[in-house]
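Lecture 7 notes: from sequence to structure.

We start with a single chain of 337 residues. Read the sequence below before looking at the structure.
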Amino acid sequence: MNKSGYHIAVVGATGAVGVEILRVLERRGFPVADLKLLASSRSAGKRLAFNGREYVVGELNSAAFADIDYAFFSAGATRSRQFVDAAIQAGAVVVDNSSAFRMRADVPLVVPEVNPRDLQDNKGLIANPNCCAAILAVAIWPLHVAFGIKRIVVSTYQSASGAGAQAMAELEEQVKAYADGQPITHKVFPHQIAFNLFSHNTKVMDNGYNEEENKLVEEIRKMFHAPALPIVPTCIRVPVLRAHSESVVIETERPVSVARAREILSHSAGVKLVDDAPNNHFPMPLEATGDLDVHVGRLRLADADSHSLALFISGDQLLKGAAWNAVQIAEELIKHR
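Now the structure, written as tokens:
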């Protein structure tokens, strides 16, 4: 680091999350002294703006990380496995947004509002959680601290943004085709996404849950340091352009009240309480889009003996579910250097 800030690399800079990382770095006034944008050979040579200046995207290679302080990886698990070691060996701290290292025992998996202490054990690599796991963790962690969660049932409503820029474009193209009376085709998703919903487009495993559902279970357990916590997820793709939503029921060890839960959430970091029953106004992906906070509401008891609570949440998949959480991790590391 020089006196004016940090040397930053963004891997996968032209993708949906990479672009958002640049926007969040600007938005947060992150101390960037030098910026290196990296992507595949197909994207090398493109120009991206940052803080009023244009940067040329370079081709990702093992020699690209000299003098880099923090490297944000968002180019998929294959690229992370290929190049993360080179970045660490060059002296960079890597925040990886892929699934490549999340469940490795020696790699912290972190949402700063939940388990910032795990950052102390990093060896130059920190994993960013799955988008749904990050959004869920922010919403329910304060409730876990207060009441002790002993079981979670969650259904996700996952937007096209979770599958990247091409998936978002496909949804827009299908809506336009429908409006124009043209045939609707699909390439990114296995089914039509416009005016439809379907089980998350990942492989169903031997346990009956798909890969996305298994990620959510494993990652919440790791971040909560609760390896046996029962979690029943159902992950669904919905025709929303951006921001994921989740319907959640938690069973608690200690009695819970709606009033107390509302009070706790209203003062919780990273949470925006949206719980206006008289006006039937609760979390919506449209309002969560662009917000760094996770919107939480629709609070109600789920059983007669006050040991379970139902809630609904929405969070921007590209922000708290990806780019913002990654930048926030770097901010936390800098704070405690």
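The two ends are 12 Å apart (CA to CA). Keep this in mind for problem set 3.
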